[in-house]
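Data card: per-record layout.
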Amino acid sequence: VRTRGIAARRHGLPGPEECWMIRVVSFIALAVVATSCSRVEIPVVPEGEPVTYAEHLEPLVIARCLECHTTEEPEAKLVLEVGTGYGQMVGRASTQVPARLIVAPGDLEGSYLWDKLIHDVEIGRGMPRTVVGSIKLPDEELELYRRWIEGGALP
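The structure for this 155-residue chain is written out next.
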């Protein structure tokens, strides 16, 4: 084992000590990313009460989407900063599939956002994304988005 480490260093490759450290750091980074997804507090909206963007969804959008959708470099030309997300999504055509609205109020299947959230897209990738790829939202959170869209995408 010792000679492999020396030979690896001679060729500019990491030795056993460095490989172990890389694995540990990678595991910690992956654990941080995975747990950061679960830290978002999902509001409870009783059945029959309307789900609104400002009160129920905007905090989730800020927590999950702001990494990529800011004014500096908005992914898909979509800015989701505080106070702007609703106007950017509701009734606006998708840049990836211009024939579809990002959010079509009252029409879940007509809303491209829904397809992105459930990872059922032909163009682009599912949302949200992290350094390790697309992640699926918890069922409770997806249910809020579904109720919001089907309920008319209230501000």
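Known properties of this structure: The mean pLDDT is 82. The radius of gyration is 21 Å.

See the next section for split statistics.
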